[in-house]
């Protein structure tokens, strides 16, 4: 039984193909529940995100896994063939660790993927398609991801606009729990800004948007983390003074926050500092605002240069992370080999005990029948020794026949070391 990782991602397949092989949780739950009854392939976890769909499985046949992926999505397996990557055993373990650590992501070091992999494992467990062996591999991958996060800098630098704004706010203001944040427009970019800042523990988020529906959608998404208030777009200027951090990204052809508006807001705030971030092109905030004392104004170009520098730092840190992942994958595989050897050793010891009891019973019977005790014990020890050494002798003879002498030499050196230790112990 081998461990396989098989799938498509942003590097190997187009958006159209990734859409075809993607699973939503409801569909995947049903498919895995059905698969749990299939004795040929019932030990598997499926990770499906916008950038990848991957099947991790314990199986005797990788083609069986790929056929399942094609059939589950109603597409021809030939269509998948040129876009699917597959890894087995050591390579599969390393790949899973790289995915969980964010080293294989479109955005290097992204933290969301670890949660997505954990959710995939949980869903598969609920469907009863995860054996203890497969679970052990995933748990070790989570351990590897944690080590990468805590011991390297691969995820510590902002490489998205939304995250960069949140990090900037924490640099300007030391106590996030006291901050009031205003997002002007509730589009994709500002939604990310609001979510990141909510996760970082800001006190309140004001959402100012032209349409109430979109503002309410964002409010619902973050209300469980932070106090939220929706402001009508027409009331933007009169509410500026309430915000410590303002992120604007309207897509308007005209500036929506003027120098005069900010000057009035500063006066109402008694000149407490403000951070304004203009993510719009054309710009939303009058550039002259930057000249006001106590105001920090950043634009897209300012943030992009920070992101470029941070991405370069992440790439440097990724080299260290890759080495760590390879070492941890080797550790896991070594543990698996030792565990497998342990079961073999246990079985060998049990067989040795059977031999001992057989020979002891025979010796006791012979002595009870009046045979010479010394002669019986001599034969008992000889017969037991022959039985115990017979498997080792066969193993050494077979090893000597192998073209590569290294295997035989390893066994020979090991036995010689055991003998030497025994002799030393006697003296």
UniProtKB/TrEMBL annotation:
Listed pathway(s): Porphyrin-containing compound metabolism; protoporphyrin-IX biosynthesis; 5-aminolevulinate from L-glutamyl-tRNA(Glu): step 1/2
Enzyme class: oxidoreductase
Catalytic activity, EC: 1.2.1.70
Residues that coordinate or bind substrate: 49-52, 105, 110-112, 116
Active site as annotated: 50 (nucleophile)
Ion transport found in the keyword field: no
UniProt keywords, alphabetically: NADP, Oxidoreductase, Porphyrin biosynthesis
Any one of the GO BP annotations: protoporphyrinogen IX biosynthetic process from glutamate
Domain (Quinate/shikimate 5-dehydrogenase/glutamyl-tRNA reductase): residue spans on this chain: 168-306
Function (record text): Catalyzes the NADPH-dependent reduction of glutamyl-tRNA(Glu) to glutamate 1-semialdehyde (GSA).
Quaternary state and interactors: Homodimer.
Misc: During catalysis, the active site Cys acts as a nucleophile attacking the alpha-carbonyl group of tRNA-bound glutamate with the formation of a thioester intermediate between enzyme and glutamate, and the concomitant release of tRNA(Glu). The thioester intermediate is finally reduced by direct hydride transfer from NADPH, to form the product GSA.
Name this polypeptide is given: Glutamyl-tRNA reductase
Organism whose genome encodes this protein: Acinetobacter bohemicus ANC 3994
């Amino acid at each position: 039984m081998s461990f396989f990782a098989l799938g498509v991602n942003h590097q190997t397949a187009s958006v159209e193909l990734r859409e075809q092989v993607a699973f939503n949780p409801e569909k995947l739950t049903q498919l895995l529940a059905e698969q749990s009854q299939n004795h040929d392939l019932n030990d598997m976890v499926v990770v499906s995100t916008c950038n990848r769909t991957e099947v991790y499985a314990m199986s005797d046949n990788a083609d069986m896994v790929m056929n399942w992926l094609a059939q589950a999505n109603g597409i021809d397996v030939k269509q998948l063939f040129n876009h699917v990557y597959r890894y087995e055993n050591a390579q599969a373990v390393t790949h899973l660790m790289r995915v969980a650590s964010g080293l294989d992501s479109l955005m290097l070091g992204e933290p969301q993927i670890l949660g997505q992999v954990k959710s995939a494992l949980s869903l598969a467990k609920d469907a009863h398609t995860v054996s203890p062996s497969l679970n052990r591999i995933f748990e070790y991958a989570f351990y590897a991801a944690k080590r990468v996060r805590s011991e390297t800098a691969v995820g510590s630098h902002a490489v998205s606009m939304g995250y960069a704004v949140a990090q900037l706010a924490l640099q300007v203001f030391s106590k996030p729990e006291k901050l009031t944040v205003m997002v002007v427009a509730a589009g994709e970019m500002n939604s990310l800004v609001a979510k990141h800042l909510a996760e970082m523990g800001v006190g309140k988020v004001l959402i100012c948007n032209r349409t109430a529906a979109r503002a309410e959608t964002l409010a619902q998404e973050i209300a469980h983390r932070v106090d939220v208030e929706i402001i009508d777009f027409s009331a933007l200027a009169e509410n500026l003074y309430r915000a410590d951090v303002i992120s604007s990204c309207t897509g308007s052809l005209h500036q929506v926050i003027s120098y005069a508006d900010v000057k009035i807001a500063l006066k109402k705030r008694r000149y407490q500092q403000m951070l304004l971030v203009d993510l719009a092109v054309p710009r939303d905030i009058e550039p002259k605002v930057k000249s006001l004392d106590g105001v920090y104004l950043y634009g897209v170009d300012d943030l992009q240069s920070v992101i470029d520098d941070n991405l370069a730092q992440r790439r440097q840190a990724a080299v260290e992370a890759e080495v760590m992942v390879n070492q941890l994958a080797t550790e896991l595989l070594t543990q698996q080999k030792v565990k497998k050897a342990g079961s073999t050793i246990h079985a060998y010891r049990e067989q040795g005990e059977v031999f001992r009891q057989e020979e002891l019973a025979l010796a006791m019977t012979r002595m009870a029948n009046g045979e010479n005790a010394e002669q019986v014990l001599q034969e008992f020890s000889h017969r037991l020794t022959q039985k115990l050494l017979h498997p080792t002798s066969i193993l050494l003879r077979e090893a000597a026949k192998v073209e590569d002498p290294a295997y035989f030499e390893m066994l020979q050196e090991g036995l010689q070391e055991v003998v030497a230790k025994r002799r030393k112990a006697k003296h």
